[in-house]
């Protein structure tokens, strides 16, 4: 009887330690993943961004080839306002005011190495990503016409 009791205490003790270290490990993992994601996205540009001057040429040079009038990869078209606002097969690709949660930004910043836009050729520079972020954070204003 007494022996069984000791064994029980031993087991619950070990279980408790295993649990605690599992939780600690989980917390470290979450911190690491979160930390990496945050670090991977370059900061937003500080200045005021203008869609026609700063953003449209960037889309044109780097995205229209696959997201323009002739091809709409992933169901996404970035050369027309209403199409761009609707997003692609996966829904909206940016949310005004929330650049860090916008898929468009995550993809150009290569947060997930498996989904990077553009998928071939040069990545966007930190400066270009900063402009896109600032544009989204400043309300993603896209003038009609
Ligand atoms: C060489 C072709 C090509 C270029 C250039 C390109 N993309 Fe893509 N894009 C794709 C393909 C293919 C998909 C769909 C497959 C996928 O999701 O991996 C896609 C999907 C996307 C999606 C997800 C659409 C959805 O709703 O699922 C976003 C956002 C996106 N691209 C943004 C961009 C941006 C921004 C640029 C320019 C900086 C760009 N892409 C340049 C080929 C391209």
Written account of the structure:
There is one protein chain. The protein is an all-alpha fold. It folds into 2 domains: 1-40; 51-137, no CATH class. It contains 6 helices and no strands. The protein has helices spanning 2-40, 51-62, 64-67, 81-86, 103-108, 126-137. α2 packs across α6 (126-137). The protein is elongated. The termini are far apart. It binds heme C. Residues 62-63, 65-67, 73-76, 87-90, 93, 103-104, 107-108, 115, 117-120, 124 line the site of heme C.
Present the secondary structure layout.
Layout: H1 2-40, H2 51-62, H3 64-67, H4 81-86, H5 103-108, H6 126-137
Helix pairs in contact: 2-6
Bound molecules: heme C.
- Percentage of helical residues? 40-55%
Rounded average pLDDT: 86
Give the overall silhouette: elongated
Strand content: under 5%
Low-confidence stretches: none
What string, H for helix and E for strand, traces the elements in order?
Answer: HHHHHH
User: Largest sheet at a glance?
Assistant: none
Kindly name the structural category.
mainly alpha
Using the CA coordinates, give the radius of gyration: 23 Å
Oligomer class: single chain
What would a concise description of this structure say?
The chain has 145 residues and is mostly helical. Helices cover 54% and strands 0% of the residues. Residues 62-63, 65-67, 73-76, 87-90, 93, 103-104, 107-108, 115, 117-120, 124 line the site of heme C.
């Amino acid at each position: 009887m007494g022996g069984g009791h000791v064994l029980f205490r031993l087991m619950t003790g070990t279980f408790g330690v295993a649990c605690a270290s599992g939780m600690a490990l989980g917390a470290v993992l979450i911190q690491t993943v979160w930390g990496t994601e945050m670090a991977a996205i370059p900061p937003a540009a500080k200045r005021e961004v203008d869609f026609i001057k700063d953003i449209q040429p960037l889309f044109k040079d780097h995205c229209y080839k696959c997201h323009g009038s002739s091809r709409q990869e992933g169901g996404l078209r970035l050369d027309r306002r209403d199409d761009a606002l609707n997003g692609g097969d996966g829904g909206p690709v940016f949310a005004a005011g929330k650049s860090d949660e916008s898929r468009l930004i995550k993809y150009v910043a290569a947060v997930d190495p498996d989904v990077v836009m553009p998928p071939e050729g040069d990545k966007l520079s930190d400066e270009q990503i900063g402009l896109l972020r600032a544009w989204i954070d400043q309300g993603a204003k896209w003038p009609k016409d």
